[in-house]
Amino acid sequence: MDEISVGKVGIFWIVRWQGCIRLLSGSCSIEEGEPYGEMVTYGTGHYTTWDRWQKSRNMPLERGITNAFEYEEWPRGRVSFCRNTRKYLLLCDRKIMRDDLITDILAKFSIPKDEVTIDGDPHYRSVENLA
User: Fold this and answer.
1) CA pair distance 20, 104, nearest whole angstrom
2) pTM of the model
3) Relative to the CA of 86, which of 54, 64, 95, 129 has its CA 20 to 30 Å away?
4) Band (1; pLDDT cuts 50, 70, 90)
5) CB neighbours (10 Å) of residue 29?
6) 129: CB partners within 8 A, 6+ apart
């Protein structure tokens, strides 16, 4: 791929753990992402990533959280890149659509705010609340 953007594609969760709101994510460069039609996406899904973190000895924070909850309990989402428009698409649980959380996600994935479209997705519905 001949992409020039420095941003990343990936998946994420926003969780409340030990009194703090935390952003957990898995990501890769656009060049390392998987083509999916006109989109480039992170190849590993939420379930597989959560399962891997449950067993990880190198990620104690993620291991603690993932062993305390199921992957679909906390608000989550995905960042993909559209090769045609050269813009990012952030799909997420509507509970995440707060300026502070979106700012943190965009910073984590190195995406300028003017290069992303943000939308809710019915696949990402959680039971836990961040408030």
Assistant:
1) 14
2) 0.92
3) 95
4) very low
5) 17
6) 16, 95
